[in-house]
Design brief:
The complex is a heterodimer of chains A (about 260) and B (about 290). With about 260 residues, chain A is of the alpha/beta class. Chain A has two domains: about 170 residues, 3-Layer(aba) Sandwich (Rossmann fold); about 70 residues, no CATH class. Chain B has a domain of about 190 residues: MetI-like (MetI-like fold, Orthogonal Bundle). In chain B, about 65% of the residues lie in helices and about 0% in strands. The longest helix of chain B has about 35 residues. The relative contact order of chain B is 0.11. Classes of the chains: A alpha/beta (about 260), B mainly alpha (about 290). The interface between A and B is large, with 48 and 36 residues. Adenosine-5'-diphosphate binds next to strand 1 and helix 1 of chain A. The site of magnesium ion has 3 residues of chain A, from helix 1.
Chain lengths: ~260, ~290
């Protein structure tokens, strides 16, 4: 199992991270000694039942939460407050409704004081890549849910972060739109090779997008198993219907079942 | 949006006409015929605005019937059309001067009170110390009608202009400080988190997210404040002002000149309506991004 290995290429690492919350005087354990390494350029998908601590892991890496014990580090340094090195695509719609699509994409570079010609080019590039060019000057209210999610993802990529954390980004979109978004994310993973942590409760999505699938147990959240996905990139959406893929899906399902 | 041959489109988007998602990535533009008909919302716009005109007209007709036509109401209790016409003639330029005096006071106190209120509300949102320091005072003063403060204002400022402006400003301030603070506190935290993960520092998060997100709330506060400002200023003009609609009404009521009283009342109504329309139009322009119900 790779979950506790600390190799040189490790980019993002949780080691023995535990998180306790206090709810009305009661202490609950949301994460129990989770260790996880994400290598440079790798996509790790995190699956687990609702409430098992997936978002808590994302909050740790994002810097919104600090662990009760253990450590979280990126490129060997402990992560601090939220910053542009760790982009987050939240499950909730976080596209700024008061900015046009283009302005949303420009937000990161502007916020970092790096809004130069190169940044402008990146914005155009991702507008084009995500099929948003025709809506560049539209306000988000004019877009459908799936379209807004693309804006959200594009905004994260434009900012050229060290890692991208995605928390059930397609949880609220219909299946057909979801497939398209998955395919786009696949293309991005090939063209940009960003280190990503992708949280989902959709097993097929996890296998399709992940280099590894991390299966978590219900509360208290622990890592149950890490499953390697043997496919090269880019992957065609059609692999989902192949037998080896379905075998893998059954395996993850079984692991999840045991975990529950 | 280019929706040409609807038959081949997957109808993912609702009747609202959102761009559909199946056309990814970067769909080749469909050819749009020159005479394409733009899709309309299917729900008919009902001419409900006409109802408003109808009720105004009904009141005017009833007024005419009860006064000029039948004489059912004595002019002392309610002036007739012809009385009002007389009064207008008589007043002439002074009505315009008084209207201008009141408008100027309203605008000034609205501007001062609202900007101070927004600034204080933002400060309370920014600094916990400021919040705990100021909030009890504001909560205690808020339910007090500004008119109730008139005796103190006269005591401190006399019967001059500063007192009136202070009263108007204070009422606007109270509305805006609470509106701003509550709105700033209720900004969806996901926007703040998103801004931080995109590299915004705390100051930038504040002006580029909080300040933008609360604009729709500020706009409704500004409208309420403007309406209240007319009420307070006219009342304040009863006290020692030498001009203004409030002064006009007070003078006329001393001589039981109900026609002039009515003219003053209508003038305030029209002026307030006008200001409200201007604010509404400006507000609509700056909040184009807001999703509105049908
Ligand atoms: N801020 C918080 N305060 C108290 N309990 C929390 C908080 N955040 C999460 N939890 C609890 O921690 C557990 C894990 O939550 P979360 O990471 O959001 O789960 P998931 O994303 O896997 O659905 C849940 O039981 C949740 O109720
Ligand atoms: Mg979650």
């Amino acid at each position: 199992m790779t979950s506790c290995r600390h190799d040189a290429a490790s980019h993002l690492a949780l080691s023995d991270a535990s998180v306790y919350f206090s709810i009305r005087g009661q202490t609950i354990c949301a994460l129990d000694s989770v260790s996880l390494d994400v290598r440079e350029g790798e996509t790790v998908c995190l699956v687990g039942p609702s409430g098992c601590g997936k978002s808590t892991i994302l909050n740790l890496i994002g810097g919104f939460l600090s662990p009760s014990s253990g450590s979280v580090s990126m490129e060997g340094r402990a992560v601090g407050a939220p910053g542009a090195d760790r982009a987050v695509v939240f499950q909730a719609d976080a596209v700024f409704p008061w900015l046009t699509v283009r302005r949303n994409l420009e937000y990161g570079p502007r916020a970092r004081g790096r809004f130069d010609d190169a940044a402008r080019e990146r914005v155009d590039h991702y507008l084009e890549l995500m099929g948003l060019r025709d809506f560049a000057d539209a306000y988000p209210k004019m877009l459908s849910g799936g379209m807004r999610k693309r804006v959200d993802v594009a905004r994260a990529y434009v900012n050229d972060p060290g890692v991208i954390l995605l928390d059930e980004p397609f949880g609220a979109v219909d299946d057909m739109t979801k497939s398209h978004l998955q395919r786009e994310l696949m293309r991005l993973s090939v063209s940009d090779g960003k280190t990503s942590l992708f949280i989902t409760h959709d097993i097929e999505e996890a296998i399709y997008l992940g280099d590894r699938v991390v299966v978590m147990t219900p509360r208290p959240g622990r890592i149950k198993e890490v499953i390697e996905v043997p496919y090269d990139r880019p992957r065609d959406l059609a692999i989902k219907t192949t037998e080896p893929f379905q075998q893998l899906r059954r395996r993850v399902q079984a692991t999840l079942g045991e975990a529950a | 949006m280019s929706m040409t041959n609807g038959a081949t489109q997957t109808p993912l988007a609702g009747p609202g006409g959102s761009p559909d998602d199946t056309s990814a990535p970067a769909p080749p533009d469909a050819v749009v015929p020159a005479d394409v008909r733009i899709a309309n919302r299917t729900r008919k716009r009902q001419p409900l605005a006409l109802l408003g005109l109808l009720s105004v007209a009904a009141v005017l007709v009833a007024w005419y019937v009860l006064t000029d036509a039948t004489g059912a109401i004595k002019p002392l209790y309610f002036p007739s059309y012809s009385d009002v016409g007389h009064a207008l003639n008589q007043l002439g330029g002074t009505l315009v001067d008084d209207a201008w005096a009141t408008t100027w006071r309203v605008l000034l106190s609205w501007a001062i009170g609202c900007s101070a209120g927004i600034a204080a509300g933002l400060l309370m949102g920014r600094s916990r110390i400021a919040y705990y320091l100021v909030n009890p005072l504001i909560e205690a003063l808020r339910p007090v009608p500004p008119i109730a403060l008139i005796p103190f204002v006269i005591l401190w400022f006399g019967l001059g202009e500063p007192g009136r402006i202070l009263l108007g400003s204070l009422s606007c301030f109270m509305i805006m400080v609470v509106t701003t603070h509550v709105a700033a506190r209720n900004v969806n935290p996901v926007y703040l988190q998103a801004a931080r993960t995109l590299g915004a520092g705390e100051n930038r998060v504040y002006w580029s997210v909080v300040l933008r997100a609360i604009v729709p709330h500020l706009v409704s506060g500004l409208r309420i404040a403007a309406a209240l400002s007319w009420a307070v200023i006219v009342a304040a003009e009863y006290l020692g002002a030498q001009n203004g609609i409030g002064y006009l009404i007070l003078q006329a009521s001393h001589t039981l000149n109900t026609a002039v009283v009515l003219v003053g009342t209508i003038a305030i109504g029209l002026l307030a309506f006008l200001l409200e329309q201007i604010i509404r139009i400006v507000a609509e322009r700056i909040t184009r991004w807001v999703e509105r119900g049908q």
